[in-house]
Amino acid sequence: MEIIFAAACCSVIVSILLKFLKTKGFDVLQMIAWNYFSASILCFYWFKTDITHISWSHTPWWLILVLAVLLPSIFLCLAKSLQYAGILKTEIAQRLAVILSLLAAYFIFAEQFSQLKLIGVVLGVIAILAIIFGQVTEKTNRSLNLKSALFLFCVWFGYAAIDVLLKYSSSLGLQFAVTLNLTFIGAFILSIAYLAVTQPQWQPKNIFLGLVLGGLNFANIALYVKAHMIFKDTPAIVFAGMNILVVVLGVLSGVVLFKERLKLYTWVGLICGIVAVLCLAKAMM
Questions:
Q1: For 39-77, what is each residue's pLDDT tens digit?
Q2: What is the number of domains present in the chain?
Q3: DSSP secondary structure string, 157-217?
Q4: H/E/C letters for each residue in 22-88?
Q5: CB-CB neighbours of 35 under 10 Å
Q6: What are phi and psi of 261, to 5 degrees?
Q7: How would DSSP label each residue in 203-257?
Q8: How is this protein positioned relative to the membrane (predicted)?
Q9: How far is it, in rounded angstroms, from Cα 12 to Cα 2?
Q10: Quick one: average pLDDT of 254-267?
């Protein structure tokens, strides 16, 4: 569970920095684009990727292409969903993507759910919902039209798809490092191409902070995939554990850093989340 906790910490730190830097006038999309540049370099040196001997026949090019498109696209869909559907609906769609991931663990990866594991998963979903409803307040009553529904679906399905594909990449053995490295490179190229069309003006501060964020984002993804390698037979624990910890740590950071007040729903969610993590940790033993 320690490695999942470390991955969740990196994810929360990235979210906090993006939230803080956006208020300071930094361009989030530009930072996200350049984060893939430093992530690709770190991936190359950390995993000692042997790019010179890439096997064209054995490399999963379909997986690299899909992930390279999904990783930057999910941020764009998230921004559009926040704009058209609002914070509450977007948060629910993002966090309830874990349900699709859990279904994939059962139907695709053939994982068996013990009673303790099932209790942990159910409590985790309850915790996520309780915390979201407790912390998020809609200031405007936005109706669910076709455009907002489309972006909500993209967020819900996109986050689950990334989880499942990263789990699959962890089972590739020696091809894993090549796949992850080429994914980051592809995501960087596609992000730069998109911004070259939509935002021709570049600011050095966005590039620099993007490179810094890339280190944290790489650590988040690398640790997350490493957790799937260690618990290769129990992907549901990694899926659920990661999502629960991200939500719980996000709330705690909001209290400490942004002086947010906790409501009753949030307290219930935190308690359920802690119990859920303990159940999942016990199920690993």
A1: 999 999 998 888 776 777 788 999 999 999 999 999 888
A2: 1
A3: HHHHHHHHHHHHHTTSTTHHHHHHHHHHHHHHHHHHHHHHHH-----HHHHHHHHHHHHHH
A4: HHCCCCHHHHHHHHHHHHHHHHHHHCCCCHHHCCCCCCCHHHHHHHHHHHHHHHHHHHHHHHHCCHH
A5: 29
A6: -95, 140
A7: -HHHHHHHHHHHHHHHHHHHHHHHHHHHTTT-HHHHHHHHHHHHHHHHHHHHHHH
A8: Multi-pass membrane protein
A9: 15
A10: 80
Q: Tell me how many degrees the CA angle 171-177-183 measures, rounded to the nearest 5.
A: 100
Domain assignment of residue 116, given as a range: 2-284
Q: What is the pLDDT of residues 62-116, one digit of tens each?
A: 999 999 999 999 988 888 888 788 777 888 888 888 888 988 998 899 888 888 8
Q: Is the pLDDT of residue 264 over 90?
A: no
Give the span between the Cα atoms of 108 and 150, in whole angstroms.
25
Q: Within a 13 Å sphere around the CA of 159, how many CA atoms are in the beta-carbon half?
A: 25
Rounded Cα distance between 17 and 112, Å, is 38
How many CA atoms lie within 13 Å of 283's alpha carbon, on the beta-carbon side?
Answer: 26
Q: How far apart are CA 281 and CA 11, in angstroms?
A: 20
